Amino acid sequence: MNSLQLLSFLLLSCIITPGNTHGGKKKEALGSQSQHTRTKKDHQNLETKFRLYTDTTEEGCQIFFNQLETLDKCSFNASLPLVMIVHGWSVDGMLEGWIWKMAAALKSQHKQINVIIADWLTSAHQHYPIAVQNTRHIGQEIADFLEWLEESIQFSRSNAHLIGYSLGAHVSGFAGSYISGTNKIGRITGLDPAGPLFEGMSPTDRLSPDDANFVDAIHTFTKQHMGLSVGIKQPVAHFDFYPNGGTFQPGCHIMHVYNHIAQYGITGITQTVKCAHERSVHLFIDSLLHNDKQSTAYWCNDINTFNKGMCLSCRKNRCNTLGYNIREERLPKSRQLFLKTRAHMPFKVYHYQFKIHFINEIQGKQIDPTFTISLTGTKEDVKNLPITLVEGINGNKTYSFLITLDTDIGELIMIKFKWEGTAVWENIWDTVQTIIPWTKGTRRPGLIVKTIRVKAGETQQKMTFCSQSIDNVHLHPAQEKTFVRCEDRFPRQNRK
Ligand SMILES: *[C@@H]1O[C@H](CO)[C@@H](O)[C@H](O)[C@H]1NC(C)=O
Ligand SMILES: *[C@@H]1O[C@H](CO)[C@@H](O)[C@H](O)[C@H]1NC(C)=O
């Protein structure tokens, strides 16, 4: 088992197998939809605590269901939109730190907004399967609460945006599907919706695009082990975002699990697991805090195609903005969007597709060169980015790859392309020279690089770069060539 598998295994065992029992509550076996009975609680209070976030109170101002005066007391403003944060499964029975960060970020950027934290800790602080079973019931309570706001103070449900993390994503989905009447909740955002016991279920048994007018989801920890993953892998929204492919996240070092276990015992696992799982939350907070650094994601079939830089198109809604400021568009089929991110906030990177046409002059020999690339932009320079081609260079072909930059270099104006020399290649060349005598005294065969075509994802700008001296397009090991912007001096190959 590698360390990632070990981690998943430990995590899943702590999720699935009963550990220390919390409370004395006995619950039924896993609920299905048919077992869920809609019971309107008109007079009694709800299990969920609705805490209106304010700058002044530490725990929020609690609004009690069916008690109008608490809406006044907490200064709920019915003419403003409502964002409700719904937490997930709880290991320690406490509200996690990100909840307050998210609430503060929402409030700081959008003063004209009500922010409520739906605190369902008593039902969430259970064995995982019990907490899963409780998600329907809590969803129903949130639906009841929204209906009450509508009936009592004419707050329109289309003005409500539920943001649910992990199990909370499915709670939000149930709230959306249980609310009565034909109108739907405005928006639901699922932040790494929980995978175990939801993956592969029918749309009515998990978060799905039908649950609100608009549903978006961010998947950040879908690495599978034994067929299970912490976050759900399948698309569950109108737009499903898969940062860095969605499996795992940069900066979440798997080795930390050992340090954490050493330091905190077995509960240390949750710290490590949280990193990639909770990244979905911090990506969302990032979208609130950094208006000038909104991350764009691109529609693509899979991460491998994306990693070749093939999907950086924004035509016909192929791209969208990750997080709060997403373009709300309901398409008939859900779209899976991909992007790369940095390891920390602000997470935005700038995506580029590079297309280079190589002609390998050494017929029949595949070359596996290592290249580095240096870019000069109108704002900044980036030096010596390593490039790994997925396949070796053979014959006469265009290669496409993805390059991401942490900084905005402005408009790209010059490219330096270097073939990092290797002894191996020199050997090949020597062999070639002895068996093909005509190369002696003329020039060494190498690679011909005529043009580099670049597409910038963030600006959608397409550019062509040509070798500075048009007569000298031959590239040899340890050599660097400079490419400058040019008109297309060569007929275009297939434009993909
Ligand atoms: C509610 O919000 C609206 C819109 O910003 C504002 O005009 C109104 O004064 C607010 N009401 C209260 C009671 O604060
Ligand atoms: C490379 O291929 C193109 C078309 O596929 C052809 O026109 C060109 O002559 C080829 N170049 C070499 C050096 O083989």
Automatic annotation (TrEMBL):
Its EC number is 3.1.1.3, 3.1.1.32, 3.1.1.5. GO terms for biological process: lipid catabolic process. This is Hepatic triacylglycerol lipase. Ca(2+) binds at residues 206, 211. Transmembrane segments: none annotated. Keywords: Calcium, Glycoprotein, HDL, Heparin-binding, Hydrolase, Lipid degradation, Lipid metabolism, Metal-binding, Secreted, Signal. Homodimer. The active site is at 166 (nucleophile), 192 (charge relay system), 277 (charge relay system). Belongs to the AB hydrolase superfamily. Lipase family. Residues 1-21 form the signal peptide. PROSITE patterns: PLAT (PS50095). It is found in: Secreted. Residues 350-485 form the PLAT domain. Pfam families: Lipase, PLAT. GO terms for molecular function: apolipoprotein binding; heparin binding; lipoprotein lipase activity; metal ion binding; phosphatidylcholine lysophospholipase activity; phospholipase A1 activity. One of its GO terms (cellular component) is high-density lipoprotein particle. Catalyzes the hydrolysis of triglycerides and phospholipids present in circulating plasma lipoproteins, including chylomicrons, intermediate density lipoproteins (IDL), low density lipoproteins (LDL) of large size and high density lipoproteins (HDL), releasing free fatty acids (FFA) and smaller lipoprotein particles. Also exhibits lysophospholipase activity. Can hydrolyze both neutral lipid and phospholipid substrates but shows a greater binding affinity for neutral lipid substrates than phospholipid substrates. Residues 21-43 are annotated as: Disordered. The lineage of its organism: Eukaryota, Metazoa, Chordata, Craniata, Vertebrata. It catalyses: 1,2,3-tri-(9Z-octadecenoyl)-glycerol + H2O = 2,3-di-(9Z)-octadecenoyl-sn-glycerol + (9Z)-octadecenoate + H(+); 1,2-di-(9Z-octadecenoyl)-sn-glycero-3-phosphocholine + H2O = (9Z-octadecenoyl)-sn-glycero-3-phosphocholine + (9Z)-octadecenoate + H(+); 1,2,3-tributanoylglycerol + H2O = dibutanoylglycerol + butanoate + H(+); a 1,2-diacyl-sn-glycero-3-phosphocholine + H2O = a 2-acyl-sn-glycero-3-phosphocholine + a fatty acid + H(+). It comes from Athene cunicularia (Burrowing owl).
